[in-house]
Amino acid sequence: MEDVMEDVMKEVNGLVGLFKEGQGDDKKLKHGRSNLFSNLSKAAVLMDARIFHDSHAVKENPQKCCTILAQLIYLQSQEPGKSLNETEATEVFFGSTKLFVSQDASLRRMVYLFLKEIHKSCDPNNVIIVTSCLTKDMTCDVDLYRANSLRVLAQILDSAMLGAIERYVKQAIIDSSPLVASSALVSSLHLFRSNPDCAAIVRRWIAETQEALKSRDQMVQFHAMQLLYQIKSHDRNGVSKLVSQYTQHAPKSPLAIVLL
Question: What pLDDT, on the 0 to 100 scale, is given for residue 260?
């Protein structure tokens, strides 16, 4: 017992020493650990990102690609001058589309996250190139890919592109997988709020949204209730009928009931 206490005290004293040493140094984080990205060189990271164009290297070392994507996301969060400019962002954006050749789940999820963050800095006319990859994932057999691709598409689609994939989104809303259905409903909410043209398209999905309210999954019911209210929010009589209908036949989701 004394040995254990001695080891604990040594560790505590070590942490205190690290805290004193790093006090005032913004590169120190909690528990005395350094920020791994504090000395990151943008030029070096962009050089490393060229691995994205090597399909063999991507398949052999997905973890390295994940690390580079994390570094790029960190750089993108920095102040102007340290973050990626439009040309650099567009270059790595095109490179990241090459990562879809890997079937590694962790890398694929990192790609989705990266695309959502980086597209804001790219030329909107160039973003369309990734929609084919995302649409392919949206129609595959892996629920994780389908759900996440929908979330990314909701961030980058305009009304013209939405019309082209409308039937896929409608199918996803009534999908048997709660993960896919919830993702489709939340994505529809984002699209509805993004611009009036997209909202006009989403309003046509009222039948699928009402069908999703019958789901056994409580979160799907909640998201469906949110979307249904958004669709009917411009019509006071429609909202009144919605409240009346689902007050008599209340959904099982507590969150949906609170929203109601």
Answer: 81
Per the CB < 8 A criterion, the answer to whether 96 and 69 are in contact is yes
Please tell me the chain's helix, strand, coil percentages from 3-state DSSP, rounded to the nearest 5.
80, 0, 20
Contact 188, 205 (CB under 8 A): yes
Cα angle 183, 96, 110 (rounded to 5 degrees) comes to 45
Q: How confident is the model at residue 35 (pLDDT cuts 50, 70, 90)?
A: low
Q: How many CA atoms lie within 13 A of 248 on its CB side?
A: 5
Confidence grade of residue 14 (pLDDT, cut at 50, 70, 90): low
Higher pLDDT, residue 162 or 30: 162
Q: Give the CA distances from residue 102 to residues 58, 108, 170, 229, in Å, rounded to whole numbers and listed in that order.
A: 7, 8, 28, 40
Is the separation of the CB atoms in 144 and 112 below 8 Å? no
In degrees and rounded to multiples of 5, residue 25 shows phi and psi of -95, 115
Q: Helices 143-156 and 131-138, interaxial angle, to 10°?
A: 140
**Gap between the terminal Cα atoms of the chain:** 58
| Polymer length in residues for the chain | 260
pTM, two decimals, is 0.77
Q: Provide the token pair at 103.
A: 């079937």
222/213 Cα distance (integer angstroms): 8
β-partners of residue 34 are 28
Per-residue pLDDT tens over the stretch 57-68: 999 999 999 999
Helices (H), 128-217: 131-138, 143-156, 159-173, 178-194, 196-202, 206-212
Is the CB of residue 224 less than 8 Å from the CB of residue 188?
no
